[in-house]
Amino acid sequence: MALSLLSIALMFFLSHFLVYYYLVILFWITKYKITFWIVFLFLSISFILSSILVHLYNNVFVMKYYYLSSLWLWLILNLLTIIIILTFFLIIFKIFHLNINLKILWLLLIFFGFTLTWYGIYNANNPIIKNTSLTIKNLPENWKHKKIIFLSDVHLWAILRENYLKKIVTMINSEKPDIVFITWDLLDWSDWNLDHLSNYINTINAPIYYVNGNHETYLWIPEVEKILSKTKIKELKNEVVNVDGVEIVGISYIDERSWNINLNPIFDELTKNWYQKDKPSILLYHVPLYTEEFRIFWINLQLSWHTHKWQMWPYGYITSLIYGWKDYWLYTKENYNLYTSNWVWTWWPPIRTWNTPEIVILNLK
Fold first, then answer.
1. What is the pTM (predicted TM-score) of this model?
2. What residues contact 293, with CB distance under 8 A and at least 6 apart?
3. pLDDT tens, position by position, for the chain (365 residues)?
4. What's the CA dihedral at 310, 313, 314, 317 to 10 degrees?
5. 360 and 149 Cβ atoms separated by less than 8 Å
6. Domains of the chain, start order
């Protein structure tokens, strides 16, 4: 753990030093060079410092500091991208013996970076409703008219709190769903009283089925279950329930270090719970993995989230490398479907430039 924190701190420091060095060289900063460096040195540790403070002190000032340091870290990533672009231009100009005012180009790119950040903040705070149609074999007639809402990754904590949850609940109720599926990270690490969340969750006007995500494990599963016990949510922990002729299967989050786990013991446990393979089935599992195993186990529809398609350009390509075709949208093979969607909020910086947060309405046929 200590080695990981040291590695992250070193990465932040080197990123800030590179941006500092480039600015000093490009704009001939000499008079306030030391002051400039002290500011950058403080900014390089700000995200780590604010992350520690937000666990120790639950007040508005610390939460705002955490929010701003998150934004700044995103800006540094933008500035590093700009430096790479400028370096590319320098090489091209040198090859073709072209002249250009690099200061103007730098300022234009910085303006673009700030504009992109503003858009990312606005976009992250305005989720959309997305309608999707899916085909499931042997679907009972009464399910063809059900309105199903599927959501995940709300990530309540230092930046988002009650108001955002209230907004999401209002959006859900406005659609008048018949059933709600949640494969969430509802919560991040948290040091504030969560009991009152049930007041908002219980106003959702539909049955709710839920499986936990990786961020619930960070908070501590018993604490999460204590909170959920006061809500109308039905948590599925490696179990099956039959809802109007459709088997709803819930598998709890499996730690990344165990992603090569043998699923047969879980499947054996599911089979005990009146699982009938001739009935259509919907699986709730937080991560879009084990697709071939679930297909062989006769799952008809797997609903997952987690990847975030990552929320910021160009880092969204990372999830494509990790999850391949499973990182977003719909995959179908024979009678098996995998639906991986965008998520409702953000993780780390409160910014989304790569995609739009969404609450999904599933129309089955």
1. 0.78
2. 263
3. 556 667 777 888 888 888 888 777 777 677 777 888 888 889 988 988 888 887 777 778 888 888 888 888 888 887 887 778 778 877 888 888 877 777 787 778 778 877 888 888 888 888 888 888 888 888 998 898 889 998 876 666 666 667 778 888 899 999 999 999 987 666 665 555 566 677 888 899 999 998 877 666 666 667 777 777 788 888 888 888 989 889 999 888 876 555 567 777 778 777 776 667 778 989 998 777 788 888 888 889 988 875 555 566 666 666 656 665 555 667 778 888 888 776 666 666 777 877 788 888 988 88
4. 30
5. yes
6. 2-124 (no CATH), 128-364 (3.60.21.10)
